Amino acid sequence: MAGQRYGTIEMIARLVAFDTTSRNSNLDCVAFIRDYLAGFGVESELFPEPGGKKANLYATLGPGDRPGVALSGHLDVVPVDGQAWDGDPFRLVERDGRLYGRGAADMKGFVGAALALVPEFLARLRDVPLHLCLSFDEELGCRGVRHLISGIEGRPLKPRGCVVGEPTGMRAIAAHKGKVSMHCEVTGLECHSAVAHTGVNAVEYAALVIAHLKAMARRLGAEGPLDPEFDPPFTTAHTGVVAGGTALNIVPARASFDFEFRTLPAHDGDALVAELRSFAEGALLPEMRAVHPGAGFAWHELSRIPALAADEDDPFTRLVLDLAGTKRPGKVSFGTEAGLYQQAGIPAIVCGPGEIEQAHKPNEFIAREQIAACERFLLSLADRLAAL
Description:
Layout: H1 8-16, H2 27-38, E1 44-48, E2 55-61, E3 69-74, E4 93-95, E5 98-100, H3 104-116, H4 118-124, E6 130-135, H5 145-152, E7 161-164, E8 173-176, E9 178-187, E10 191-192, H6 202-223, E11 236-244, E12 250-251, E13 254-263, H7 269-291, E14 296-305, E15 308-309, H8 315-324, E16 330-332, H9 338-343, E17 348-350, E18 365-367, H10 368-384
Parallel strand pairs: 3-6, 3-7, 7-17, 8-16
Antiparallel strand pairs: 1-2, 2-6, 4-5, 5-18, 8-15, 9-13, 9-14, 10-12, 11-13
């Protein structure tokens, strides 16, 4: 069957034109990809979210009777709200060898290259297939791909390995940090600020917990554990959102804050959350409840991304390192879906075009030379799959 062919730049432009900001549906983009693949006789399997507003797409190129290698990318992008773009963020524009557009680097460049090469893949894949894994809501804590992974991890022919094409400058990345992010709600007791001692100031108690979190961050930076191959080489702690209070002359009864730990692969994020909770509930809660028995802390997990620590001796890992020309695999502090694949028993490594420094910024771009390098890598991977 002869489907509609697109060059890689044209395919990236088509993908960028879909506003797949995480708050939006991605179904129009998924339908375009499904129909494009169908034009080459490739069937797609969709794994939707429970509400049906978004979906992951899974497709197999080549023989379907044996496990292959997955090419994984997310279709969602971060918002452009409040950013000073020089043009329409959802219209790919080339200037001086750079392709500008929301998602160009993170990560429609990789997805576009993989899709544009489908006709080439089909002509080359004889013994081992390639699987396309395209997900939603990666930018919201890798929520979407979990539905896809749960749908394939129990299958006898689940992928032998997975390349997650996040922007790494086409360097092979074998490890990244994990993340656990939390929301804390503080309940105090409201009163007039002239008699503040009769109330429980939720904002101040939230501030004490945040200050303790900062002290933990300093300790982690100074004492470790440390891994010099990461930047920074230690687990980090960070408070990103704080809210509370209504008026200066009212002791606030409510406050909240969001925080996260980005942990080295061998570091237990749950233990760090437990340490912070122990301080709040052991050192602060008794004095709060001495004034108001209903005072307290409530903790809610926002997201969790497992760390990646690939086995560098695995044949799949060695193959990707070889194809990427990476003598020693790198380690990065940002999280990806690769840790979830690894958790499901699918070896994973991160390697994709573009630089993470361009992600999430106004005037996000990817260099044309990075796209060319990605195309060479993907075609070489297709040619070498039989070696696995």
